[in-house]
Every structure is written in structure tokens, then in C-alpha cells.
Design brief:
The complex is a heterodimer of chains A (636) and B (114). Chain A has 636 residues and is α+β, with helices and mostly antiparallel strands. Chain A contains 17 helices and 16 strands. Chain A has 3 domains: 194 residues, Rhopdopsin 7-helix transmembrane proteins, CATH 1.20.1070; 165 residues, 2-Layer Sandwich (Beta-Lactamase); 224 residues, Phosphatase 2c, domain 1 (4-Layer Sandwich), CATH 3.60.40.10. Chain A is rod-shaped and about 150 Å long. The chains are: A alpha+beta (636), B alpha/beta (114).
């Protein structure tokens, strides 16, 4: 008969083991170890009792079961100081249980009763104490404690009454154990089934979030939202996708080589020390984190940016990197992810997420999700920057076009020919508007003034410089004023008037037809070329001086030379000698000089035309980057 | 054009890479402005990787020079070469702009002056 009971128990035990093992394969549950131990313990006890039917075996076996259950409960609630006394009491009870075996029934009964009331009482009390308010994941214990407690009470009662002598009643009662354990396992498996369902739902939601995010970004670009809104969207979506408690985006400040917070969502305890004052109020903590600049390379966030590698800490326990965020601290973080936002090997910033629930750590999958997300987000941010650049480019181009209108009104339409001196100009802009400016002034009956100027930059500021030079020339230049003085005054007028980064190189010369004399002054422009009628040698005339518009106190010197009938004067800008053909070869000063020499007997217009056609032939279809201006004067 | 920033002590170094022209020189200008606003010990512009500069770029150099001068901050332009150097030469700005051959020499000058 006993063997039949034993066989029944063996079947139940085998089933329990199978259930247990299959459950272990599916889910990792830390609390299951104690239950598993309980099963083995009960099995060993019954096996031992079947061989040596000593009541003490059953009695000590039960105390062992209480101990296992207490350990199991403490997995959830944490250790209590009183547990120590309980274990001492349990050992004493076991010892006394063996010692009193030969004693009269009444003594045995008292010992069993006392041990059960004290040991089981404490266990039941500890179990009943548990609620959702004081214990994490208490659901399993709360759900199963009635069945567990009542089965234990029944067992203890039967054990005490029958003096743990086994027998039919004792054995039937023992089966209760297995049923109770079954119940616990069943509840647990249902719980995990539920968690699995939730996981699947959350995965589906993640995918949906990602699509939503991409769509929103597409719309965002079309709506011309600013970068700030895009960053906030990325931050929120990432946080929602992996169900983080908090998320943050910091962007690299290239100039200061630091990270600055650009967006934050949820509650994000930062991975660095925070002053006590701000720690405990989430509003002030939020403000503190928002305004804290992190040098690249410092803290986990700075390291992720410096090395361009993602950091994943699923479990902060005992991880020194998160020493500021452990234990019962307000800044507690269970799981941490920091992923750099990288495009073309350039780190733009970092996206970091945290989870605070100790039993809900980030998984490898979450980490992968964030990485995918981050790479998509980086591309979006980069695209946005490119888009901004394109807009900027367009604005500059638009400005350049406005400047072209202004310039068109400034350049002389025709040149004075009264004196017989022939002037010809060839000017071509590289991109809609030229930075080159030229002018011819009739100073008096005998004297003309010629200007060739290369203004730095393009667009409205450059056009304004031209306007100023144009006006000042008409105010300052006169037949009596020396050319050097004229440049000195123009420079004084320009310096301080215009933006510091606008300047012009400028050649100014006057020609007196009557006495055939030339005066020349140069503000860092190309020297004046003179080809004498009777010589093939090209003279270069130059004077010292910075470009105009840079230093207020520059005094420009001048040079004067005599001219002869048939002499050719040539002024030009960079674009002429630096004109490039498709092979990357420059037109060069040598070629210009050769063309001038070969044609110096021709008229000014003819020389200009020849240079122009040689230039066109040389560059072919190559696009020019600089404006070209050429002024040729033939002395009558 | 790309700008890469480094520091050597309190001296900030900007490595300029690529062409400096009308369409991007404002970026260098903005960077210089930002750095100057944050109270730096000196600024070095490394032009070792610049092969082309137009007048707008030169304008930014002149601007930076004036700004840092008025701010009493050390400023050096280093490793000018090729056509970039020639443009500066032609514009007669070689003596005007604080041009130093190498970064080390510039750093030595800055630290020596203190």
C-alpha cells in the first residue's frame, strides 16, 4: 500500500518536474529556484520516509519546506532581521524533534505543535503581510497564498495530530503539497503567458511607432519645422518605442567641444553626480540637467560621443559606470542606453534612454531598436542640415542677383572720347554679378581718371562697397588731387563704414592728355601694365598699400610716368590671368603679356577683343569661378 | 568646406578643410565669432588643408584678425600654401595678417608672450 502511495507521488513529482523544466526553458524566473528546491526536497523526504519510516524525517521535511517557502517569499520582499531567529528556531525544532522521538506521545505532540505554531505562524504572517504596495511583483504570492497557506495548515495539523507517523491520512495529506506547488506553478505560468502577450503587443506597437515617426519626419520636413522640433520628435518617439522612462538628446557644440541638451522627455536621471539641492525635486533636476554642458569624453554621454560607440548597460547593479544611479537613490537607473548619432563618421550628438523598473530591464532587442532608430534619426538630422544649407545657398544667390541690378546701374555705359585716348573694357561675371568694378571719370578737359577694382565677396554688401566707392570717387577725385591722396581718402571713408570683412583691391590712375603724363596709385591690385610704342617690353607699375577698407590709417603713395603716343595701358583683375581651362591650366600673366605684345599696334578695342577671343579659346567649356575685367587704354 | 576644432590648453585651433569661398566662408566667420564670445586664450586657423580661397575667404581672415586684435586675443594663421598663399600675397596682406609657418611655432609664440 505504501508503495502505491509512493508510486502516485512519483508520478505527481515527475509531472511537476516536467512542468518545471519546460517552464524554465520558456522564461527565466529568479523566484522559481526556491520552488524547484521545494520539489526536490519533498521528493527526497518521501523517498527517505519510504525506506526509513521515521516520523522525524517527515517533521524535519516539513520544517525544510517552510524554510524553502520563506526563502522564496524573501526573494520578493528582501531579507528581514527576524528571519535569522526563525532559522535558528527551525534548527532547534529539528533537533528537538529527533531527540523527543522516544518520549511519550504528549511530549512529542507539544513539541510538534509548538514548532508548527511558531515556525508556520511566522511564515504565514510573512506571507499575509505582502501586498502590491510594499512588494514588487507580489501578484504571484497574493494570488497563491490562500491555497498555499491553507494546504500548509492542513498538513501541519494532520502531521501534528498523527505525530508524523505517515499512514493513510499522512500520505494523502502529503499529496496536498504537490497540489499546492502545482497551483503556484500554474499561476506563475499564466502570469508569464500574460507577460509574453504584452511583449508581443509592445513589439507591434514599436513597429507602428517607427512608421509613425518616419511619416512625421517626412511631414516635418515638408512643413519646414525647425531642428528643435525634429529633435524633440526623435526623443519622444525613441522613448515610446522601447518604453523607456526617460530619454534625452544632446548635440555636439563643435566650437566648445561640449554636449548640450537639446531635448528631454520623461524622467531622465543623468549618469553623473547631481547636487543634493536639486536632486529631489524633479522640476529643478530637469532644469539642472537641461543646463549642464558636458565636455566631450566626460561621463557616459561624453564617452559615447568621443568614441562614436554605443553604450548599453542592461543592469546597473554593481556597474561602476552608473555608480551615481544605484540603490535607493532618487537618480536610480536600472538600464541605460546611449547611442551616438553618427553620419559619415561625424558624431552629431547622442541619444540616451533609461529605464528605472528593476524587473523590466532593457533587452538586447531594445538596444538594437534604439540603434536602428538612432541611425535613421542621424540621417534625418543631417538631411535637415543639408536642406538648411541649400536654403542659405539660395538666399545668397538671390542677394547676388539684387546686387547685379545695383551694379548694372553703377558701371559706365560709355567712355569719354574727346581727348582721342581710346578706352575699351571687357568685363564678364562668373556668377550673375561681378565683384569687379570699373569706372572712368572726366576730371577736367585734359584729365581723365580710371579705376579698376575687385571687391571682396558678392551680394548686397559687396554691391554697397561698390556704391560707396562710386560715390566717394565722384566726391573726392578731382583734377587737382593727387591719385595717392584720392585712394587714401577713399580708404578712410570705407574703413569703419563697412563690415570688417569687406574690402577691395583698387587701382586708380589719371591721364593728362595734354602733357601725356600718368599718375598711378595702387591698393593691392594687380600692377598696371604699360607697353611702349617703341618697345616689346612690358613695364609693370606698382605702389605699396593694403586693399581699401581694412586699415583706416593707410597712406597710399603714387608714381608718375610720362606717356607717348601709341602706348598701351592695361588694367585687369584676377579672373583674367587665373582663367582656367579644363586641364586646370591658368591663362597666366605670360599669355596675357604675349597677346598684348603681339597686338600693341592695334586700337584699344581691337586689343580687348583679341584678348577676349584668346581667353575664350583657351578656357573652352570650362566654367569660370572668378569675374574677369580688362581695361585697355591706347594713348592717342 | 569643413571645420574641425581642437584645443591646446586655452588656445583653440580650427582646422579648415576644403575650399573657402563665397558660399561657406560665413561659417568660418560664425565659428570665430562664437569662439571669441567664449573668452578663449588664443586662436589658430590651420590652413594646411585649404587649396582654394576667394576674396570672401580673405575677408573672413581680415575680419578675424581685426576682431581678435580688438579683443586682445592671440591670433595666428598657419600652414598657408599654394594658391591660397599666393592670393594673400597678391592682396599684399602677408605683412598685415598674422601668418606663421607652423602650428608649433604659433603655439610657442602664444605661450612665450604670456
Amino acid at each position: 500500500m505504501e508503495w502505491l502511495f509512493f508510486a502516485t507521488k512519483a508520478v505527481v513529482l515527475a509531472l511537476s518536474l516536467f512542468f518545471l523544466v519546460s517552464l524554465r526553458v520558456r522564461v527565466q524566473v529568479k523566484a522559481l529556484d526556491a520552488i524547484q528546491f521545494l520539489l526536490f526536497w519533498a521528493f527526497a523526504r518521501d523517498l527517505l520516509f519510504a525506506v526509513f519510516p521515521q516520523p522525524a524525517i517527515l517533521f524535519i521535511g516539513d520544517i525544510g519546506i517552510y524554510a524553502a517557502l520563506l526563502v522564496w517569499i524573501r526573494r520578493y520582499t528582501g531579507q528581514r532581521r527576524s528571519d535569522y531567529y526563525w532559522f535558528v528556531a527551525a534548527v532547534v525544532a529539528a533537533g528537538v524533534g529527533i531527540a523527543v522521538e522516544a518520549q511519550p506521545d504528549a511530549t512529542v505532540f507539544t513539541v510538534h505543535l509548538t514548532a508548527n505554531v511558531v515556525l508556520l505562524g511566522y511564515l504565514l504572517y510573512s506571507t499575509s503581510e505582502i501586498s502590491v504596495h510594499n512588494t514588487r511583483d507580489s501578484e504571484l504570492i497574493v494570488d497563491s497564498r490562500f491555497v498555499l497557506s491553507s494546504s500548509l495548515i492542513i498538513l501541519a495539523a494532520i502531521g501534528t495530530v498523527t505525530a508524523y507517523s505517515g499512514g493513510a491520512i499522512g500520505h494523502s495529506a502529503v499529496l496536498l503539497h504537490y497540489i499546492a506547488i502545482w497551483f503556484v506553478l500554474l499561476t506563475q505560468s499564466q502570469l508569464h503567458h500574460l507577460i509574453n502577450e504584452l511583449t508581443i503587443a509592445s513589439l507591434r506597437r514599436q513597429t507602428e511607432n517607427l512608421f509613425e515617426f518616419m511619416e512625421a519626419l517626412g511631414g516635418g520636413i515638408a512643413d519646414r519645422v525647425d531642428i528643435q522640433r525634429i529633435l524633440e520628435m526623435i526623443c519622444k518617439s525613441a522613448s515610446r518605442t522601447i518604453e523607456a522612462d526617460g530619454a534625452i538628446i544632446l548635440m555636439v557644440d563643435d566650437v566648445r567641444n561640449t554636449l548640450r541638451v537639446r531635448s528631454m522627455s520623461g524622467f531622465y536621471p543623468p549618469p553623473y553626480a547631481v547636487p543634493e539641492v536639486v536632486k529631489h525635486r524633479s522640476a529643478s533636476l530637469h532644469e539642472y540637467v537641461y543646463n549642464t554642458e558636458i565636455p566631450v569624453g566626460e561621463t557616459l554621454l561624453g564617452q559615447a560621443v568621443e568614441h562614436g560607440d554605443a553604450i548599453f548597460i542592461p543592469d546597473s547593479t554593481d556597474d561602476e559606470r552608473l555608480s551615481e544611479n544605484t540603490g535607493r537613490d532618487f537618480l536610480f537607473v536600472q538600464s541605460f542606453i546611449a547611442v551616438p548619432l553618427v553620419v559619415n563618421n561625424r558624431v552629431l550628438g547622442v541619444l540616451s534612454l533609461v529605464r528605472r523598473d528593476p524587473d523590466h530591464q532593457f533587452t538586447d532587442e531594445d538596444f538594437q531598436h534604439v540603434q536602428t532608430f538612432a541611425s535613421h534619426a542621424s540621417m534625418t538630422i543631417d538631411n535637415f542640415y543639408t536642406y538648411l544649407e541649400a536654403i542659405q545657398h539660395r538666399e545668397i544667390q538671390r542677394e547676388v542677383n539684387i546686387a547685379a541690378d545695383i551694379q548694372g546701374k553703377l558701371l559706365p555705359k560709355e567712355f569719354p572720347r574727346r581727348s582721342g585716348t581710346e578706352i575699351a573694357v571687357y568685363s564678364k561675371s562668373a556668377r550673375g554679378v561681378s565683384g569687379d568694378y570699373y569706372d572712368v571719370l572726366e576730371l577736367d578737359e585734359d584729365k581723365i581718371g580710371l579705376v579698376v577694382c575687385d571687391v571682396a565677396g558678392k551680394g548686397v554688401p559687396a554691391a554697397l562697397v561698390m556704391v560707396m566707392i562710386h560715390s566717394m570717387l565722384r566726391l573726392i577725385a578731382s583734377a587737382e588731387r593727387e591719385v595717392g591722396d584720392t585712394l587714401t581718402w577713399i580708404n578712410r571713408g570705407l574703413s569703419g563704414q563697412i563690415d570688417l570683412d569687406h574690402y577691395a583691391t583698387m587701382s586708380y590712375l589719371t591721364i593728362n592728355h595734354k602733357v601725356r603724363r600718368l599718375s598711378y596709385s595702387n591698393a593691392a591690385h594687380h600692377p598696371l601694365l604699360i607697353v611702349r610704342d617703341d618697345s616689346d617690353v612690358i613695364e609693370q607699375l606698382d605702389t605699396e598699400g593694403l586693399p581699401v577698407g581694412i586699415e583706416r590709417d593707410v597712406v597710399y603713395p603714387q608714381k608718375a610716368v610720362d606717356l607717348h603716343s601709341g602706348d598701351v595701358l592695361v588694367l585687369y583683375t584676377d579672373g583674367i590671368i587665373e582663367a582656367m581651362n579644363l586641364e586646370g591650366e591658368q591663362f597666366s600673366m605670360d599669355r596675357l603679356a604675349r597677346v598684348i605684345r603681339e597686338n600693341s599696334n592695334e586700337g584699344a578695342q581691337q586689343i580687348t577683343d583679341t584678348i577676349q577671343s584668346e581667353l575664350d579659346e583657351f578656357v573652352g567649356s570650362a566654367r569660370q569661378h572668378d569675374d574677369q575685367t580688362l581695361m585697355v587704354v591706347k594713348i592717342a | 568646406m569643413e571645420l574641425h576644432k581642437r584645443t591646446s590648453g586655452s588656445v583653440h585651433i580650427i582646422d579648415v578643410k576644403g575650399d573657402l569661398d563665397l558660399f561657406n566662408s560665413h561659417k568660418l566667420k560664425e565659428s570665430v565669432n562664437e569662439l571669441v564670445a567664449s573668452n578663449i586664450g588664443g586662436l589658430i586657423l590651420n590652413f594646411g588643408q585649404v587649396d582654394y580661397i576667394d576674396s570672401s575667404g580673405v575677408g573672413v581672415l581680415i575680419y578675424s584678425n581685426s576682431l581678435l586684435k580688438s579683443n586682445r586675443t592671440f591670433f595666428h594663421i598657419v600652414q598657408l600654401h599654394g594658391s591660397v598663399r599666393r592670393v594673400i600675397e597678391l592682396t599684399k596682406l602677408i605683412g598685415f595678417l598674422p601668418i606663421t609657418d607652423t602650428e608649433d611655432a604659433a603655439l610657442k609664440q602664444i605661450h612665450g608672450a604670456r
